[in-house]
Design brief:
- The protein has two helices and five strands; from the N terminus they run αβαββββ.
- The chain is an alpha+beta fold.
- The longest helix has 53 residues.
């Protein structure tokens, strides 16, 4: 067998094996793609449920001022606004970051840690929490 024929045979065998590997890869992708899609959907559902559980303690319940301060420091963000209405400030103050640090008891936004607040969650139509409202009793 000539040198050129041998090279052509090696090239043909290489192309054949490459096609087998590509076909096998496509076959595995087609089999696993629905599983991956379903898994992604289930993960999104679980994430939404965990978010709902995380905010459930503020849904129509009565909480203390210290819990309100804790919610501001841990939950307030650009996605979740926390509005607090005190007896001294009936229009309320909105917090968009975890930064409650009012120490002056005469400040109308001061939150007394032992005061009681009614809480309510704000949600979008698809159930995403966008805010928590606290009204002092």
């Amino acid at each position: 067998m000539g040198d050129n024929a041998r090279k052509a045979l090696y090239m043909a065998v290489g192309v054949f094996f490459a096609l087998i590997i590509i076909t096998t890869g496509i076959s595995y992708y087609n089999k696993t793609e629905p599983v991956m899609s379903t898994s992604s959907s289930k993960i999104d559902t679980i994430s939404s449920q965990l978010d709902a559980i995380d905010y459930k303690t503020y849904n129509g319940t009565q909480v203390s001022g210290s819990e309100v301060i804790s919610a501001i420091n841990t939950k307030a963000s650009s996605n979740v606004a926390i509005k607090v209405k005190t007896k001294a400030n009936s229009s309320g103050k909105t917090y968009n970051s975890g930064s409650y640090n009012i120490k002056d008891i005469n400040n109308h936004d001061y939150i007394e840690s032992t005061a009681m607040f009614n809480s309510e969650i704000e949600k979008t139509d698809n159930g995403t929490v966008t805010g928590i409202n606290f009204d002092q009793e």
